[in-house]
Amino acid sequence: MSDLPMPIGETPEAAQGGIRSADWLEWLHGWIVTVDHKRLGILYILYSIFFLLVAGAEALFIRIQLAIPNNHFLTAQVYNRFFTMHGTTMVFLVGMPILFGFANYIVPLQIGARDMAFPRLNALSFWLTAFGGLLLYYSFLGGSGLYGVGNAPDVGWFAYAPLTARTFSPGNATDYWALALIVSGFGTLGTAVNIIATIFSMRCRGMTLMRMPLFTWLYLVVSGLTLVTITPLTAAQFMLLIDRYLGGHFFDTQAGGSALVWVHFFWIFGHPEVYVLVLPAFAIANEIIPVFSRKAIFGYPAMVAASVGIMFVSLGVWAHHMFTVGMTSVTNAFFVLSTMLVGIPTGIKIFNWIATIWGGRIRFSVAMLFCLGFLYQFLIAGLTGIMLAVAPLDWQLHNSYFVIAHFHYVLVGGIVFCIFAGLYYWYPKATGRMMSERLGRWHFWLFVIGFHITFDTMHFLGILGMPRSIYTYQPDRGWNTLNMIISVGGFIQAIAILIFAWNFIVSYFRGDEAGDDPWDAWTLEWTTSSPPPVYNFAVEPEVRSRRPLWDLKHPHDPDWEYEG
Amino acid sequence: MSTSTQVFPSASEREWKLPSRGRVGMLSLIIGESALFTIFVVAYIFYIGKSLTGPTPAQVLEVPILGTICLLSSSFAIWRSEHAIEHGKMRAFVAWLATTILLGLVFMVGTAIEWHKLIYRDGLTIRTNLFGTTFYSLVGLHATHVLLGLSMLSVVLVLALLDRFSESQSERFAVIALYWHFVDLVWVVVFTVVYLIGR
Amino acid sequence: MSSEQHHPHTSDGSHVALPASTAWPIVLAFGVTLCFASLVMNAGVGIAGLILMLCALVGWVREIFPHERHEEVPVIARPTVVATVRTQVSRIQISEVQRSYLPIESYPISSGIKGGIAGGIAMILPALLFGLLTQHSIWYAVNLLGGAGAAFWTNPSTEYIAAFHWSGLLIAIVIHSAVCLLVGLLYGAVLPMWPRHPILLGGILAPVLWTGMLHSAMWFINPAFADRIAWGWFAVSQLFFGIVAGMVVVRTGRIQTRQPLPFALRMGIEAKELMRPDAEDRN
């Protein structure tokens, strides 16, 4: 069966060489009016990589400021803006768009569909996200705050009340924060609805739910979680705007309102948000680890169940961000226990990945290297998470650099590593060219080294008592050397990212030809050409197992004999 | 190398049925909207009785019986019009649809009268106290959703009167109807919280 | 809507209908953004946004009504072969010996619960004896247990503890029976791991571990009462509990574990892939 040819076409446009022959304006117009899920996916990813560089630069400014004590490289006000914008950008303009970009590009291909369920809504969602981001950054120019024009939000990415009240945040920098995130939140909601509808209603023949690739499964879970995660933030931001513009009293302690309610509402969004970001990272690892271990994923049903389990548990753990606000001991105990519960499904996943690698023929390509880094770092991040889940320890370490180290271990060590793995893995599919493995290795090793220099050290700094969000510190606190080391690590990571950016651009023009299936993988996206034609599949595919390409490549030993 | 189309071995000749994307999408949106309303409802319940100054709900709120009956019965009307368009009875469809819109409008007028009374006679605005803040935002959020639903239904009504809306659109109409049912359901919650528990 | 959702495939396969490109989404998104931005800019921006939104909505409706606009994209046939150079498939070999660690026979879990109940009743004897000998009151031990669970007894005197209290007795009975049942259940669940010497496990190891754990934890749970507990007597009561529980277990007959049976049978399902020994171990 495997040597049967497959008719797969290209559009005449692409055959002529795309942009080189077409008029430049026409090309641009094509991208702006597109409703094609692949183009929108690429737009999402490019948009997030751009903001990754921006927010990364902000982080570097923060690290320069903190490298030596009593530094006056940035003023306190600018420092506040930078850490607020760094956090907000990384979560809302980098993390979510890039992960939804992957979903946009890959999910329809993996389920054998020709497009998303609602292609126009898809375009609307992307542009809402994009304009929301631009609105946020316009505040650098247009926001007028306490210090005149050009004032970006400076209330922290969680914007705790009552700091956001009119009295304490005059001007409209805080409003830019709320408005931009409401706009991009609509986009996120649209994408989540779209992905769910796509996965339920657009699967090709034979692709039952339990035959879907795990990547698609996890995006179904993520989108479901996004629905109930992003809307509470939107609601809370509406309340904030009502307070600020209509004189409401939601968070106004002078009129009987409660600042604590904001904290609850924010973390009801904020904690599941972590899982909205990390589950797609799991999704990417679920695809890459089996392919480069040459084994089927271990425990597919357990992986699905664990993901769904994480989704439900994550909705009931938000107050572990709030142990220090003074809740009752019963509440504290509940959130300690529910938080530790997350360790169970996550542990199942880590064991399953290790069991997948175990005994496999491992190929250490760059994508796989990033996944292995993810496995190790995510484990550590989980363990420090369990430490912080213990309320008494959290009372000691709350808002210290230990917490910063912990969540950067999750967000960078876990999620960013998987994002890079995904970029190396699917780049050939989207462009038809391979990214350079040699530069990729430089990128990986520099990034790993820089990452560990920065974030391992931060744990110690936190235990030594350095609080987050301070713009400078006295030289006699014993934090000088560690801060310098952290800043150096930050710059090593920056070099790694620049190598990545160079590789990303240059490989598009000079990379090796990828062919349809450069990794010898098993999911449907690798049957079509690279890059895929606009219609994805000339003939709608039909599958009989979780690894349709395995069945074709090993006709005498197909999966469907075993999956029943 | 023939261009055979049958690459993937056919698993079975069973019919491959998938749920309608419109319904799945609308249900997802409803789940998201529910979370939005939940936050406002929770805020309302949390702030019951926490206002430092009057007026209190017990002093000024009157139970909007007529509006509630109208809104809830509009769910029945839209269900009948769904039924009608599925069977191609366009006249019945238009009649029931117009009834739905009319009932929705009565509800909105009722809300407008209520707000007018609250603002001008009782002096309760969104900035008066916590009750005002939570009341106007929760009821206002719901009213916004009713307005959105009404405008969608009105567009459908105009199209139907122009003979542009036919039986083939019944699936789309079912999706809009689903949204309308959701708006009604939310009102049951809002009504319970604001007029029964909170008063 | 469902009728159109799978983009119709023209009969000859030379063209595929795809949703047509449209500018309305970006216009609508821009309009929405302007509307929200007007709050921090000026009303003009908001009006412009509203106009854009309305235009975009009308345009959008025309785009999908009465039918979604499609464009026909020609399919260019391009024969491809799905194949791999890695045609060899090896399988992990798992020796059957690894299963022999699991016992063929064990005690049922219910025997653990029975043992727990019996041990719990038997344990009352040394506990009361302890109260009688040290404080001349059988209520002393009862109140120590009951009081440990009732945090509202703050700094009680020895006489107070030695006296009879309804609340102390009730709480003690609840705690005692619940813990005995749970420990019995745990005992029963652990039994298959060490099925040969239930008395050694239940009678000596478990009491020692349990006493040690409580000894270290009691100082956090209720330091005032931890002071009063005579740990020697405590350990003796635990041993008493364990030995009685173990004896009850031994008197219950052994049952066959399902370990020697194939996995599918143990799970009570009949599935083809589970019947084949190599099904789970392919790579």
Please explain how this structure is put together.
The complex is a heterotrimer of chains A (564), B (199) and C (283). Chain A is mainly α and 564 residues long. Chain A has one domain: Cytochrome C Oxidase, Chain A, CATH 1.20.210. Chain A has helices at 12-15, 24-32, 37-67, 76-110, 119-142, 173-201, 214-245, 259-293, 300-314, 329-357, 366-389, 391-397, 401-431, 437-463, 480-510, 548-553, 560-563; strands at 144-145, 148-149. Residues 1-17 of chain A have low confidence and may be disordered. Chain B starts with 20 loop residues before the first helix and ends with a helix. Chain B is mostly helical. Chain B has 6 helices and no strands. In chain C, the strands form 2 sheets. In chain C, strands 1-2 form a two-stranded antiparallel sheet. Chain C has a two-stranded antiparallel sheet with strand order 3-4. Chain C is 59% helix and 5% strand. Chain C has helices at residues 2-5, 24-37, 43-64, 109-135, 139-149, 158-162, 166-190, 198-221, 223-228, 231-251, 263-267, 272-275, and strands at residues 15-19, 70-74, 105-106, 255-256. The two termini of chain C are 43 Å apart. At the A-C interface, helix 5, helix 6, helix 16 and helix 17 of A face strand 1, helix 2 and helix 3 of C.
Q: How many structurally independent domains of chain C?
A: 2
Alpha carbon gap, first and last residue of chain C: 43 Å
Total number of strands of chain B:
0
Q: Rough shape of chain B?
A: elongated
Strand content of chain B: under 5%
Count of all domains of chain B: 1
DSSP helical segment count of chain B: 6
Q: Are there runs of chain C of 5+ residues with pLDDT below 50, and where?
A: 1-11, 277-283
Indicate the radius of gyration of chain B in whole angstroms: 22 Å
- The fourth-level CATH homologous superfamily of chain B is Cytochrome c oxidase, subunit III, four-helix bundle
Discrete helix count of chain C: 12
* Elements of chain B, N to C (H/E): HHHHHH
CATH C-level label of chain B: Mainly Alpha
Low-confidence stretches of chain B: 1-11
Quaternary organization: heterotrimer
